[in-house]
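lol so apparently i was supposed to do this last week
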Amino acid sequence: MSTQRPALKFPLRLDRLSSAMALSTHVPARPLLRPQALLQHAAVEAARRIVPSGVGLDSADVRRRMVERLKLTGLRDEAVLGAMAAVPRHQFVDTALVNQAYEDTSLPIGHGQTISKPSIVARMIELLRGGAAALTTGSLGHVLEVGTGCGYQTAILARLSRQVFSVERVRPLYDKARQNLAELRDAQIRLVYGDGTLGHAPNAPYASIIVSAGGDVIAQAWLDQLAPGGRLVAPVRAADNRQTLMVVDKTAGGFRHTNFERVYFVPLRSGLA
Ligand code: SAH
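anyway here it is w/ S-adenosyl-L-homocysteine bound
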């Protein structure tokens, strides 16, 4: 009968197979329709799809490629990109996750916390470097970092500042950061086990303050410990309950607040753990 599919006989003969296949594929394939993506989103998506491959994680090439992808997301500050190209992120994540170390993603570091995405680390430090004091000196000067985590961002900051004082409230993470950073032997780094909502008064004032956990407000201690001309960058809960990246500049006329993009950070908590 004419509606029957041609039977395939074994062993198959290629000359017969091709005519049999041609008969059975009479429905033409239609192209998939997709809604148009914004050009900017498409660029970011394209950047995400390029996965590091072919070289060992110790290779500078892997980091260089990560930096190329960061540039596609709009990051421009050469000093920040240079630091991102130098610090071996895979040394800050668990062995089971090293293959993802150079993807633009946050990863678990234990105790319900995460290592931040490379693009957000670079973005926040780029903003920090736009403060008056940093613009004048070309350095972040004395930095207070709240939320050391595994110490990755601390290592990036150390390359762009005079000294970094980094506070962590979770004891095992403080210990882990000590271990991770010991290998880099960076004399500019001082790790502090404490509650970062209180800042770190003994080494204040700071030209730069960077906060890696999302709070409800900007802590008073941070404003008190910010040097004149200094800048603070922190994720803060906005009126609609979502986190926004907030920049605070300490000027001669007082504090100037500017809100930037939406972000998603682990919560800022008080007290020690
Ligand atoms: N800077 C890290 C991000 C770590 S996640 C990086 O390089 O990726 C945020 C960290 O903030 C967590 O380790 C969490 O324990 C810490 N944290 C939250 N509240 C804190 C507080 N009040 N004081 C100090 N650290 C705090």
